[in-house]
Design goal:
With 240 residues, the chain is an alpha+beta fold. The protein is 20% helix and 33% strand. Strands 1, 2, 3, 4, 5, 6, 7, 8, 9, 10 and 11 form an eleven-stranded mixed β-sheet that branches.
Length: 240
Amino acid sequence: MTVLYEDNHIIAVNKTCNEIVQGDKTGDTPLSETVKAYIKAKYNKPGEVFLGVTHRLDRPTSGVVLFARTSKALARLNAMFQEKSQLNEGRSPITKTYWAIVQGAPKMAEGRLENWLVRNEAQNKSYIVSPPKPTQQKKGIDAKQAVLTYKTLVRGDRYTLLEINLETGRHHQIRCQLAAIGCPVKGDLKYGAKRSNPDGGISLHARKIAFVHPVSKEQICITAPVPDEALWQKLTSIIQ
């Protein structure tokens, strides 16, 4: 586990593609428990360690994950992420930037994608649908608007490195929307990638998170190094 930032109220770590943020039916030890153990050992804390999960990353996704170390920080960060999940015209107190290696390349080097998504719980997958009519919403069709912007950082022969900024936070939003323009994330078989990655993950990385500190009110920006994998290192070395 790599700690990227910590103080008395928050801690951020760099998640690998093999870790889960919270416990699930697999029974695997979640990252939240690993962080608790780290805090308990480092600060010699007696009893149970408080740690609040403020947001999640899909298991096959890597990158920065932010946890709260106090209940005050948790409540305030939860409010920030809740606001982030809605369309906010760029005024969110928290921003998340992702890097993705995708198959092929978008037709436009940069752009804005707007879609309506529906989540299929049984398949753990999201689908793009037509904008819902008022009558459909009354019938319980839970389509949500998803908006992101992207720009090309590096274009290779077979793969392209993109930077993505979310304006909304929807289930599998990046994976679904990029697949819809013919650029599935490398290794993402669920959304149309040609083959899996050797490590079982997908080439989607939560690169950066910027936010107003929930207690000090200072502006914080935390960046997660990309995975130590050949293609990641090759593509990112070009822009360094």
